[in-house]
Amino acid sequence: MRLSRAASRYAKAILDLAVEKNEANAVNEDMKTVLTTINGNKELRDFMSSPLINADQKRGALHQIFKGVNQISTNAFDLLVTNKRSDILMDVATMYIIRFEEMNKREIATVTTAVEITADLEQKVLAKAKELAGKEITLEKKIDETILGGFILRVGDQEINASVANKLGALKREFAQ
User: Fold this and answer.
1) How confident is the model at residue 132 (pLDDT cuts 50, 70, 90)?
2) Is 112 helix (H, G, I), strand (E, B) or coil?
3) For the chain, what is the domain count?
4) Sheet harboring 150-155: ordered strands across?
5) Nearest CA to 38 among 9, 7, 72?
6) Do the Cβ atoms of 6 and 84 come closer than 8 Å?
């Protein structure tokens, strides 16, 4: 995942302010909500990145969609819209979460599966991720039907690809030789 420098800078500033005001946990929850909401809604992503939509409409939409979020988060939305950077809101949320986890000496592990994983399997994946990272892990689950089956576990810069699609690709390359 390649995130912009601007997103990293906004996220750092938001985190610094949230820590100063002792509201970093609440803002982290807000950023998780922002990330899942925008990630799951193509129309919202298009709306936020459209140069045809004016700042007031974007600001109003964000305030309406994310009612009840922390004031720091609301101010961050306003700042991004004012600076014509609303298109990087999802990246800012991602960077905030990453920085928050690093600050708390935790790492984010991402497990991608073709279907929703069971609680038992989730615990096994979490244990393996903790073993790989050597520290506390926050597990982020994604569903990608294109992997057909199995899973892909990413912890930091390490990846375990036990997906059916990967194994089929390896067989295809082997037969091509």
Assistant:
1) confident
2) strand
3) 2
4) 136-143, 106-113, 150-155, 158-163
5) 7
6) no
- Please identify which residue in the block is written with the tokens 């599966």: 113
Residue 117's nearest CA partner among 140, 137, 98 is 140
User: Are both 81 and 158 inside the same structural domain?
Assistant: no
pLDDT at 3 over 70: no
pLDDT confidence bin for 2, thresholds 50/70/90: low
Cβ(24)–Cβ(15) under 8 Å? yes
**What confidence tens digit (pLDDT) does each residue in 107-117 have?**
888 888 888 88
For residue 102, what are its two tokens?
A: 């690093």
Q: DSSP secondary-structure letter at 50?
A: -
Domain boundary among 77, 102, 127: 102
Domain identity same for 60 and 117 = no
Q: How far is CA 128 from CA 30, 46, 72, 131, 136, in A?
A: 28, 37, 35, 5, 11
- Pairing label, strands 136-143, 150-155: unpaired
Task: Output the pTM of the full model.
Answer: 0.68
Domain that holds residue 142: 106-176
Sign of CA dihedral 107, 29, 8, 57: positive
Alpha helix segments (H runs only) across the chain: 5-20, 24-39, 42-49, 55-65, 71-82, 89-103, 119-133, 164-176
